[in-house]
Write a structure and sequence with these properties.
By secondary structure, this protein is of the alpha/beta class. The protein has 11 helices and 10 strands. It has a 6-stranded mixed β-sheet with strand order 1-2-3-5-7-10, with helices on both faces. β1 and β2 form a beta hairpin. The radius of gyration is 17 Å and the shape is globular. It starts with a strand and ends with a helix.
């Protein structure tokens, strides 16, 4: 366990488990750093062929811990720990799967656009409340969202901030399969093991062809970060964050 992140191995599959249940897996800088380290370690380890991300029962992640985020962000964007994680996520060559149960807010939603397969339980809920906070989408989602979901679904999710149920997400292409809660981990790990058993170079090349050159996504992540930093200083965002903390 490092920074509320548990990293474990299942054969050729590396499992990265966010584990901060008392805060519904709200993400801290330390958690981002731990996940980045795990992703980078996988890239350099031929024995690891697939990465899998899990949360805890009822909470994949509530998104950023806003107090931690505002305390440690550079105030010119998302901050070093977050950006390092997003760049590692977008540039990694190992297949990535996620098993989602419960809430998947903010990055919990946009992260799925980088996953090759996402399994979700019927009670899962995807939400990206960026504009509600006076900010903009991140993780390259402004580019990947329309490509994966179509323009109108992407607008509904990322700009209007609509809630997507597991059924909505499945229909839109954000999720590969809906499975019962008690079957989530087994189903996700079974798919990961099946992928890991394939010839690794054929899998790497096939994945690259399907995803395309990552440079456009990496460039969009950096552009979003620049605008995100500008928005953090805006009157809209300042008022939105004040209102958010006043409700707590």
């Amino acid at each position: 366990m490092t920074g509320n992140v548990l990293v474990e191995r299942h054969g050729a599959v590396q499992v990265i488990r966010m584990h901060r249940p008392e805060k519904k897996n709200a993400l801290t800088g330390a958690m981002y750093a731990a996940m980045t380290a795990a992703l980078k370690a996988a890239e350099g380890d031929e024995a690891i062929r697939v990465n899998v991300l899990f949360g805890v029962p009822g909470a994949f992640t509530a998104g950023n811990d806003l107090k931690d985020f505002l305390a440690h962000s550079e105030q010119d964007g998302l901050g070093t720990e977050v950006i390092d994680f997003l760049l590692a996520l977008a540039s990694g060559e190992k297949p990535m799967l996620a098993g989602v149960d419960g809430i998947a807010i903010g990055l919990g939603t946009t992260l799925q656009l980088h996953c090759d397969l996402t399994f979700a339980t019927p009670r899962s809920l995807f939400r990206a409340p960026f504009t509600d906070l006076g900010i903009v989408p991140e993780a390259g989602s402004s580019l990947l969202g329309p490509l994966v979901l179509g323009r109108q679904n992407a607008f509904a999710l990322l700009a209007m901030g609509a809630d997507f149920t597991a059924e909505d997400a499945l229909r839109a292409g954000l999720v590969y399969r809906s499975v019962p809660e008690e079957e989530l981990e087994a189903a996700t790990l079974a798919a990961a093991a099946r992928i890991a058993a394939k010839p690794p170079e054929a899998m790497r090349l096939s994945r690259r062809l399907l995803r395309g050159d990552p440079e456009a996504v990496l460039a969009r992540i950096r552009e979003e970060n620049r605008i995100f930093g500008e928005r953090l200083k805006s009157p809209e965002a300042i008022e939105a964050f004040k209102a958010f903390f006043a409700r707590k």
